Amino acid sequence: MKHTETFFERDTYARHTGIELLDVGPGRARVRMVIGKVHANSHGTVHGGAIYTLADAAFALASNSYGIPAAAINATIAYMKSARSGTLYAEATEFSKNPKLATYTVEVTDESGEKIALFQGMVYRRTPRQ
Amino acid sequence: MKHTETFFERDTYARHTGIELLDVGPGRARVRMVIGKVHANSHGTVHGGAIYTLADAAFALASNSYGIPAAAINATIAYMKSARSGTLYAEATEFSKNPKLATYTVEVTDESGEKIALFQGMVYRRTPRQ
Amino acid sequence: MKHTETFFERDTYARHTGIELLDVGPGRARVRMVIGKVHANSHGTVHGGAIYTLADAAFALASNSYGIPAAAINATIAYMKSARSGTLYAEATEFSKNPKLATYTVEVTDESGEKIALFQGMVYRRTPRQ
Amino acid sequence: MKHTETFFERDTYARHTGIELLDVGPGRARVRMVIGKVHANSHGTVHGGAIYTLADAAFALASNSYGIPAAAINATIAYMKSARSGTLYAEATEFSKNPKLATYTVEVTDESGEKIALFQGMVYRRTPRQ
Q1: A122 touches chain C (CB under 8 A)
Q2: pTM of the full predicted structure?
Q3: For testing the chain D interface, which of A116, A118, A119 should be mutated: the one with the most D CBs within 10 Å?
Q4: Among 3.10.129.10, 3.40.630.30, 1.10.287.1080, 3.20.20.70, what is the CATH number of B2-125?
Q5: What is the 3-state secondary structure (H, E, C) of D57-126?
Q6: Tens digits of per-residue pLDDT, A101-122?
């Protein structure tokens, strides 16, 4: 999906955060982030904002995978476990979609498969009338 | 509050995102972010992850303002309006607090006072027994 | 606001739950619920679903106060404190509104003003084009 | 699971709402609600509060399935589609659990399997120290 790779290349803040695209398809995406010093919060673990941004990058790729611009209108994240080192993965799945609104879930796991966070987000699309 | 300034200095990812501490007090905090090229998403507006991280930084400062470590367990963000340039502000307010759990709201506005996002988050604290 | 009173009279499930309309205006509403045996959950306190329904009734009144049908698309609720008896109040406030999407917050308190829950919800409106 | 059936029998508000227990096991539960006149909102479709209560009942059963009291601390619901008649089902699944906090997802579907709502909730447990 050439379109989607270009889409991710333009995602400056995701790349500033060290996020890499692994895989994308219709309504789904997978990204990763190798934990570095830059991701630390004041407690020395990975920042909630970095984990959210990882999940959000997968959500944006999945919801924009049809070539129609989708804007996030809200999202919820639950944090299960703090992370300190290694690689984090986020996998976005489309739960439902109608012409205007669509809902996605994103699971964030570490490299041993431990659950780090669960994200649920909604987008609004201006699907062109035909 | 010396403690809180040190707390913010250790928040590497917030500083990597360009967030600055403006003001902090018991159960409240205010931060800002001058929008730069680094904050862009694929649509050319400020990334939802950067807006979340701004809100989250205020939330972390407010919830850790008592000197007892507080860990975010979940958060919700609603996005009202996209932002392109200028400065964004986030202001966190404590809504409620008991020995273990506390809830905060964070409003994100731009420099003309327009509402950009509304954030609601919960922390868990291991308040020492006495 | 005759329209709004009729709107509430048609809200069968809110009335089945014992919710009463106190006050409504553009983008805001206040309702109450006298706690009865019917509201109990398995722990003997007021059911999370009843508290949510109370908040949701205020949210529906506030978001439909302009006479344009508004449909809830999502909501988040945080519970602070359990309730056992007396009266609960929910007050909805409009946080932001554009032609399609609007966000409301609802505070649920008991009769001594203690915070019981905090609700944040979003609606979608098919505002007629002119 | 005798304990769980008794637990559900004591859930007065869920039964007031017409919810029936179908199945429960460790960390999971399934309930249903035959849509009646009582569930209507002002628009004539099933009330968001009734759909939330259905999801919440499954969440409560799943999170209390271990015999240790679990209190909901927050929840998010996204609504996909309105429902008018027939039967709604809610199925709760445990996403993660530690001694204090656990996260569940609940899918609400209608009798033809159409997605009606997606719920994500967190509980706090006072797991006894040993």
Answers
A1: yes
A2: 0.96
A3: A118
A4: 3.10.129.10
A5: HHHHHHHCCCCCCEEEEEEEEEECCCCCCCEEEEEEEEEEECCCEEEEEEEEEECCCCEEEEEEEEEEEC
A6: 999 999 999 999 999 999 999 9
